[in-house]
Amino acid sequence: MGTLSDKSDAARQQHQQAQMQAKHHPEALARSMAYLARTLADVKQFRSELAHLPGHAADNAYPPLAIIYGKEVPTVYAAHVTSREAIARTDCYDNLLFQSGDGVVLAREAMLPPGYDLVKDGRHSTNRGHITMLGDMDAVGRALQAVVRGRAKGIGLGKDRRME
Length: 164
Fold this sequence. Notes:
Strand content: 15-25%
Helix content: 25-40%
Radius of gyration: 22 Å
Number of helices: 4
Largest sheet: 3 strands, mixed
Strand order of the largest sheet: 1-3-4
């Protein structure tokens, strides 16, 4: 969401403390920035490798896909902090914003990347949280049945094996 423009005494004090920490621990800041740069580069590469390839779809190379997602557990999607410098502090995350998800992953982020198709009856919601989601045997069973039905119809077996 970003930062708040609140210039209250508490906000000003947090901002000053964050600046002081950055000045007194430049090597920690450098390590953190290097880690962030590495992590963001890895995530960017991972997401680019997930990009849908229309040629694969035309060749029926993608397997049948199903998803299980949670939408019952409030999931943090943003936090208001007083300044950019305050982002590094652990004591300033009191103003959190929530959306539906599984407690870790937002429901909308649990969907397939653009271009990919779910197999028929392949979308299953669960009331379980992130850690126990695969313990919902009903949802797991329904998702697996959808994948098996899709494979039986030839999804993902190449152009010549697809049955409509």
